[in-house]
Write a structure and sequence with these properties.
Elements (H helix, E strand, L loop, with lengths): L12 E5 L28 H13 L4 E5 L9 H9 L8 E4 L4 H11 L3 E5 L5 H8 L4 H13 L5 E7 L8 H11 L2 E6 L4 H7 L6 H11 L4 E3 L3 H4 L2 E6 L5 E5 L12 E4 L4 E3 L7 E3 H6 L4 H12 L12 H5 L3 H4 L2
Bound molecules: S-adenosylmethionine (SAM).
Length: about 325
């Protein structure tokens, strides 16, 4: 069975935010005073996770990215990974993390089914890093990156949100940092999700500007990747004579909605059809109301008919003001 939306897009990728909690407070991601009030009863249980993932797999989902909040803060994260990796049809389980706890978890998550990780790191200057994350510890993150490498997780991708006059002067240094470790790096435009993200638009630094800087830093060394489609919304380049690649994600200046194959599930079991739209449906409530598997499948299929053609970052800002990226999972 396949999940095809009204615009012919085949949905095969689910981003699952396993917790609303995060140990960092990146200023473009959550408001300074944002607190998480989610209780244990509100989040999906192991049984509910297995049930809904099995149903998603039967509907054609093959990739489940674990995100958050900070996924490594979720109690039982290794068990969750093991349970999901045991589901027939799910063949790809990447994890997005700030890597603060990765040194402790790298080996365990690798052994239980996480084949690759994306690590958020917006600066390699300790003080600046602490400022952007409102308290983060760069040395822990670097320890986490090195532990992931040691554990054989591959690829490891660094995710850098580029902000004018905040960290745009580090594009070259972060690229060299990745090359030095033979890992990949992706530079991301700020997205206007929630008031934190909308405020960050003041520091917007465009994909075109990022490319110009990279091209000047690595003359004749950027080879455009042919498999862009499968790689998602990034424009990817392998870097000649290195074991690394660099990508640029331009969700705002050049959106990639026509090839969007993803949906999102929050820790509380809310299915979100588009990052830049308010449409959602509670699969947790559907499960807790005693729906059968077939009814749950119908609920998901119906929800997919509401997946919008494209996000409305620029024209419908009010719609997404109330959202918090930290709860949606990026
Ligand atoms: N804690 C994990 C992490 O740090 O990767 C997972 C959750 S985090 C919300 C996922 C991704 O969303 C991170 O790479 C983060 O930089 C990105 N993100 C959050 N707010 C954003 C915004 N306003 N614009 C662009 N990217 C954003």
């Amino acid at each position: 069975m396949k999940l095809i939306d009204p615009f012919g897009r085949n949905i095969t990728y689910l981003r699952f935010s396993v917790t609303d909690h995060c140990n960092y407070r990146c200023h473009y991601c959550r408001d300074e005073n944002h607190t998480v009030k989610t209780s244990r009863q509100q989040v999906l249980t192991y049984e509910e996770i297995v049930k809904i993932m099995r149903i998603f797999a039967e509907l054609g989902i093959i990739k489940v990215r674990l995100t958050g909040g900070e996924p490594l803060l979720r109690k039982g994260i290794v068990k969750i990974i093991r349970l999901i990796s045991g589901i027939d049809g799910i063949s790809d389980i990447p994890l997005s993390t700030n890597a603060h706890l990765l040194a402790k978890f790298a080996q365990k998550i690798q052994q239980n089914g996480v084949n690759r990780v994306n690590i958020s790191i917006d600066s390699i200057l300790p003080e600046r890093f602490e400022k952007i994350t409102r308290g983060g510890d760069l040395s822990k993150v670097i320890e986490g990156i090195d532990a992931a490498k040691q554990a054989g997780i591959k690829p490891i991708k660094l995710n850098v949100v580029v902000m004018r006059e905040v960290n745009d002067d580090e594009i070259e240094a972060l690229t060299d940092f990745a090359i030095g470790r033979k890992i990949d790096v992706r530079f991301i435009e700020t997205m206007p999700i929630g008031t934190a993200g909308i405020d960050a638009l003041d520091q917007h630094y465009s994909a075109a500007q990022i490319f110009k800087r990279l091209d000047a830093h690595l003359p004749n060394r950027l080879i455009a990747s042919k498999s862009e489609q499968s790689a998602g919304p990034a424009k990817n380049y392998s870097i000649k004579n290195s074991g690394s690649s660099v990508g640029i994600i331009s969700a705002v200046s050049n959106h990639f909605c026509s090839s969007c194959n993803r949906i999102r599930l929050t820790a509380k079991g809310r299915l979100i059809l588009c990052l830049g739209q308010a449409n959602s449906v509670s699969l947790r409530d559907a499960m807790r109301s005693g729906m059968s598997d077939d009814e749950l499948k119908s609920t998901i299929i119906k929800a997919i008919t509401n997946k919008p053609e494209k996000h409305e970052f620029s024209s419908n800002v009010d719609n997404i003001k109330a959202a918090q990226m930290v709860e949606i999972g990026g």
